């Protein structure tokens, strides 16, 4: 088991950042999702032993963080959010320093730093000072320092923040490749939900310090037969009521309807069934397509169902 939390609570004054938080999570590629103030950073810092939780237990790879914080950190590579590099060092010095902090002898740290910098695409820039790097290059350097100690778990906090589309795609490819190349698990904390869809197979959703979902990504975005996204001319509520009279299950999501046709309607006839119902009621459909389930849609529904939206 990668991560085990049992009844964890953490308070900052009057703010309860983690509330009776419990989960068990196997190894893999994991996306950590939640709105601002959800408790994501507190969770990451609790895993690293950088803050002391008020109650409960946190275990990483079976090690109790409160009892053996240094043993836990020896297993983790951490890429924090923000522009936190040492601008006066070149990329090789910066990465080698991180390797030495992990306990590698000087010669091995240097060799390892060269290897990791080539892997993240900074081989030709390894003698340049970090202060001269672009945002994307700094992100790669910070990823290199997280990888250089050969961790079993990589914690990535907003790794694509500030990147242009090409840089973002290249970073996501690295994140996808790391578990296959090194065997390490990856925990990705981000506000960019498509990044999680591209790179992760498990998801944690938290809000207001509470766990709302923990498990496989696939069920959240699995497509369903007989479910459509519908937009219409005029009031959505009129079409909603009309389709409900035709036995459809209908919900309003922002500017669209999500329509589930009755189970006895064959899949190939479902779209015509919705159109027929609208026409019989004298209503005009402007958009009708099978519902594409995205992680963003699933995330918002999870928050709404929990009353956290």
Brief overview:
The chain has 309 residues and is an alpha/beta fold.
Keyphrases for this structure?
309 residues; six-stranded mixed β-sheet; four-stranded antiparallel β-sheet; alpha/beta
Descriptive report:
- By secondary structure, the chain is α/β, with parallel strands linked by helices.
- Helices cover 37% and strands 27% of the residues.
- The two termini are 31 Å apart.
- The model has no long low-confidence stretch (mean pLDDT 92).
Strand elements, count: 14
Question: Cα-atom Rg, whole angstroms?
Answer: 24 Å
State the distance separating the first and last CA atoms. 31 Å
Helix content percent band: 25-40%
Contiguous helical run count? 11
Strand order of the largest sheet: 6-7-8-3-9-10
Structural class: alpha/beta
| Average residue pLDDT | 92
Major beta sheet summary: 6 strands, mixed
- Detail the poorly predicted runs: none
Strand content: 25-35%
Run of helices and strands:
EEEHEEHEHHHEHEHEEHEHEEHEH
Which of globular, elongated, flat, extended, rod-shaped describes the shape?
elongated
């Amino acid at each position: 088991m990668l991560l085990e939390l049992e009844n964890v609570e953490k308070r900052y004054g009057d703010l309860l950042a983690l509330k009776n938080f419990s989960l068990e999570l196997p190894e893999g590629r994991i996306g950590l999702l939640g709105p601002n103030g959800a408790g994501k950073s507190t969770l990451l810092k609790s895993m690293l032993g950088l803050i002391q939780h008020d109650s409960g237990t946190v275990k990483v790879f079976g090690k109790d963080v409160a009892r053996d914080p240094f043993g836990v950190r020896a297993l983790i590579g951490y890429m924090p959010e923000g522009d936190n590099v040492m601008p006066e060092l070149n990329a090789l010095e910066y990465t080698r320093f991180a390797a030495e902090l992990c306990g590698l002898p000087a010669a091995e740290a240097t060799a390892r730093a060269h290897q990791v910098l080539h892997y993240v695409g900074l081989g030709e820039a390894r003698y340049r000072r970090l202060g001269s790097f672009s945002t994307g290059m700094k992100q790669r350097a910070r990823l290199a320092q997280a990888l250089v100690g050969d961790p079993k778990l990589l914690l990535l906090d907003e790794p694509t923040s500030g990147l242009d589309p090409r840089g973002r795609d290249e970073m996501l490819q690295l994140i996808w490749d790391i578990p296959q190349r090194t065997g390490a698990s990856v925990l990705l904390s981000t506000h960019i939900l498509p990044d999680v869809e591209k790179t992760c197979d498990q998801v944690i959703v938290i809000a207001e310090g509470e766990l709302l979902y923990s498990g496989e990504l696939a069920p959240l975005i699995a497509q369903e037969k007989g479910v459509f996204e519908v937009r219409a001319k005029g009031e959505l509520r009129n079409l909603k009521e009309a389709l409900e009279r035709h036995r459809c299950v209908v919900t309003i999501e922002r500017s669209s309807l999500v329509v589930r046709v009755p189970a006895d309607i064959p899949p190939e006839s479902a779209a015509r069934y919705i159109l027929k119902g609208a026409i019989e009621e004298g209503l005009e459909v402007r958009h009708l397509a099978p519902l594409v389930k995205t992680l963003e849609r699933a995330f918002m529904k999870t928050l709404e169902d929990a009353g956290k939206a």
